[in-house]
Amino acid sequence: MRAGVLSKIWAVFRKDLLIELRTKDSLNAMLFFGIVVLVVFHFALAGADDSIRSMVPGVLWAAFAFSGTLGLNRIFAVEKENNCLEGLLMVPLDRGVIYVGKMLAVTVFMLVAELIIFVFCLVFFNLTVWKEIPCLALIFFLGTLGFAAAGTLLSAISINTRMRETLLPLILFPVVLPVLVNAVEATNMVLNGVSEGGLKLPLTILSVFTIIFATISYLLFEYVLED
Amino acid sequence: MDQKRQSTFDAILGVLVLVGMIAALYMAFLQAPQEKTMGDLQRIFYFHVPSAMMGILAFSVNFAASLMFVIKKDRRWDNLALSAGEIGVMFISMVLITGPIWAKPVWFVWWTWSPRLTSSLILWMLYVAYLLIRAYVPDPDRRAMVSAVFGIVAFVDAPIVWFSIRWWRDIHPSPMLETGGLSSAMRPAFYACVAAFLVLFLYVIRRRYFLESTRYEVELLERKVGA
Amino acid sequence: MNSMGFLFSAYSAIWVILAIYLFSIHSREKKLRSEVERLKKMLESKNHKL
Fold first, then answer.
1. DSSP class of B112
2. What ipTM was reported for this prediction?
């Protein structure tokens, strides 16, 4: 039943959101780390004061990616603690449903963190953006969704290895590279004034990536969780 | 016995590899004409490109074997997947080493972020990640399943990575372009090298698969003895 | 290093990588072969005891 599936996804999604709202563990860590990355890059790129505006897209998405990795680690680490994962698996849920719920939850966490990190970025790098906001919002949304689509599956894989969370960055970044490349370029196009038509290609690739990886992850998720 | 027939086949194959490689060397060094702009240095091409092709072939085999394992759950597919994955990493390592050796005298830099070299690097990282995952999952059956999932993810990701990098390169062009140009006079040597590498590929993957089958045999025996 | 030197290094690198890899397969195989023999003998002695 269609309605049944959606309500199950909503249940998983809501659970993760509620837990996060109560503790705010992930959000705080993601936020703080994202801002730290911005500061680090300011010092790292100190020699390039003139062209700093051209580097902002890259710096911004680096901050998003590193902060997002924290969030991805947390969505399954939080289940590993107290062995909640076994409990979750005992509920008669299609495994793909757990995937979608978790992916949407981590997307929300990332978007919230990204919004605040972005504001800090505007301040640190002295940028003003007003009319660019709708385009940027779309890019951030698509990029984050793609990142989460692949990341949620990979997080589930890494959390069950001996290295646990430490493995995630190693396996995540090669896979989501297309997201980062396209998102950075699209952000660059918007911030540094390139024709709007040029945005179609990166946004299309981001969408294609998201659809492909959400589908594969949905189908393969159960094989990663069997325990 | 099957093993005796296999050893003879492998012995013949081994001889073919030797003959093939010597023929390939002859073609690359003596038969092929000298290239106009780079001179003899261009001859690296005859081994550099077939290595890349064999790497991609290996990863295709890994993808097919991973898919078959997820469907059939027969460990022999996992043995094949691992063998193919490892060999792929070996061939791509060759690409990544010969690439800079070629680039340095021509472009005076060790690394050019050319599409082929960059894509090879990401591809290498993807399958090193595959091997890393395998290293950190102790249980053999879980290891097979989890790495099969990642094998599928990596292979689906690869074309998107390549496309994204190529598009990025179009936006950020560089004077250092990789010459992939083959004049018709060079084709016989190139095809000869590809053929030699194919025979080599077959030989190495058979040897590696046999090693993995032996390891699986040990695992089964250990289970029986332990029981 | 002139271009011939680089050419030589590139081809040597390929041969060295191949050689190391094939050699590692060979040595791992020898070790596993002896493991198989050892385990088979253990299994045989176990079956004889039954």
1. -
2. 0.90
